Amino acid sequence: MIGHIQCPKPSHHAQCWNEVGAFNITGVQKQGFAVLAKRVEANLYAYFFPRRGMEWLPKGWRPKVVAVDIDGTLTDGHKQLDTGAIQALRKLEDAGIPVVLSTGNVRAITYGLWRFLKLSGPICCENGGVLWHKSWGGPIVRADGSEAKRAAQWLALQIEGLDPNGIQTNDWRESEWCLFPDEDLAAVEHHISQSEWSHLSVVRTGFAIHLMEPHLSKGTGLEVMFDKMGWSADDVLCVGDAPNDLPMFEFARWSVAVGGAFDSVKEAADVVSPFPHGSTFAPLVEAILAEE
Questions:
Q1: Cβ(254)–Cβ(270) under 8 Å?
Q2: Looking at the domain assignment, is residue 57 inside a domain?
Q3: How far is residue 261's CA from residue 251's CA, in Å, rounded to a whole number?
Q4: Which residues are catalytic?
Q5: Are 49 and 275 in contact (CB under 8 A)?
Q6: Number of independent structural domains in the chain
């Protein structure tokens, strides 16, 4: 852990550490020293850790599509986007490699990120429940989230203190329903398994407990998407951090777990990044673009 951060010229704090993240030290007042120090530490680690000695890809293979999770992958535990990851994704797009956002998040948020990053690939939202691309004329909604919502309301009668309204983004959910991540997962799984909603899948990530139809997953969502786009699963590399990324890992030719991923995700991945969260992308993309 970095204990002290000192710029050679205190008057130049805004430019300090420019090469490893362009951090503005005056941000301490806004987000607290601990958060800022953690961000600086992660970026210094990614900058100085040996990149070229690691084999990110199979020899002689270069993905034609890259699918990436958002929460916990492009962002850190504080839901802050990694600016280096954003720059790396733009490099992929500039090189003619479409980027697909594949997330448990809702279409409204995913579309905003897709638009501001100027990505060209489709988006896979709500764990494959909602698919969209600008050329399709509208979204593909693969389930009705009202049943999952009713299950959450019923759970609140069975588990004391459970909040059936769940996380904020339920206001925009179309195909599933999400409880807070700190609800009692074992109790939720038990009661759902004994109920009329026993067919629903219960999947916990770092940001929510998802209640969803059993046919929904990032893997099945990408399968529908790739068929519509005329793409092959043999050409895709995916990056993720949580259990809802596992079906995507099974679908893709190659998978990368970011540093900080769940243990089950690290075990399933073809490569485990030594870099935390979004800091994975700069060296990964460098390796991708180095392949001809």
A1: yes
A2: no
A3: 18
A4: 69
A5: yes
A6: 3
